[in-house]
Amino acid sequence: MSHRIIHSPCSFGLHISDDEQGYDLDLFCIPKHYADDLDRVYIPHGLILDRTERLVYTHTYIAPQICKAALSTSTCCAAL
What we know:
Blueprint lengths: L4 E3 L6 E3 L6 E2 L7 H4 L4 E2 L5 H21 L13
Antiparallel strand pairs: 1-2, 3-4
Enzyme class: transferase
Pathway: Purine metabolism; IMP biosynthesis via salvage pathway; IMP from hypoxanthine: step 1/1
Cofactor: Mg(2+)
């Protein structure tokens, strides 16, 4: 997916093109009170923190169920 968020010439806004697809909701930990009102995420607030939370959730809760084995250790490396 290519993301084409184009900064506008004005200093207080940006332009999002009509064909922008946005991000899938399942890539984020969306608060329950927003879940029914959202289809896509276009400008993700706290993208790095939210994606990190989702990756930890997937690694900690989903991976053991898929592999059918408990994870004894976890290693996390973040490169920013």
